[in-house]
Amino acid sequence: MTVAAVPATPEVLDLYGRPSIVRRVASWAGWGISMLAVLTIAAPLIWVLYGVVSRALPVWRWSVLTQLGTGTGGGLANEIVGTLVIVAGVGILAGVVGVSSGIYLSEYAHGRLGSILRGGSEVLAGIPSIVLGYVGFIALAVALHWQFSLAGALIALTALTVPYIAKATESSLRQVPTAYREGADALGMSPPYTMRRIVFKAALPGITTGWLVALAIAIGETAPLLYTAGFSNSMPSLSLTHSPISYLTYAVWEFYNYPSNTFVHLSYDAALILVVLVLLLIITARLIVSFTQKYTETN
Hints:
Elements: H1 21-56, E1 69-70, E2 73-74, H2 77-107, H3 111-126, H4 129-143, H5 150-174, H6 178-186, H7 191-219, H8 223-228, H9 248-255, H10 261-298
Antiparallel strand pairs: 1-2
Helix pairs in contact: 1-10, 2-5, 2-7, 2-9, 3-5, 4-5, 5-7, 6-7, 7-10, 9-10
């Protein structure tokens, strides 16, 4: 028995087999709204980039990358090194804690305990950064007598970024197809081996992206570091406590209000360097994601 074809209604196709005017108008409207949404998101970014670049390039000096800060200006070498040290430390601490937390939440935290832990992580992610900095100052700089220090800065920024990494890790692991786990179980693989060799590899692009986004957030933070890291015109030392450390966001926040044009220009330079660092992190994230996706597809 054959089923007769149902003729297209005028609302779907016109006499020439093309989409009707109603559908075409709806399609154009959808594209227009989508483009408007993209421009709405991109406009503030373009405005910020233009403001930073247009102010920094006319007064840019390559010597700021190698000169230390002085009372009369100098360069930003100590701020750049301090920022890189802080970001590297946060990347290690927050990466280990955040990824481990995400694995636990995804694979082992079920029922009431899982709900409580996820709620706590979301609450921690919603706490203002300046509050975390003040708590770090009271608990670490004052109560433990660490004073302004690298360790205090690392702990404060780790507490700020861990929820993002944990959420990204949990979401990435949950998106791995169940067939991967079932196939590994059918082959007799142990759960730890399955997690390490199959599930984690498949989730690695999303985990890496979340980790690098958290680092970008850490690069741009100022409030927690004002209470925990302090500031110094010297290069960072190997001491974790009782030694303040400099960072670029302090130069942006503080030098801009100085009456001297030299310091104002240094704040422009620091803002441009921060933008470049964030862009490098984004590019690195895309390269790592591309590599890991290719690796997981071929292995």
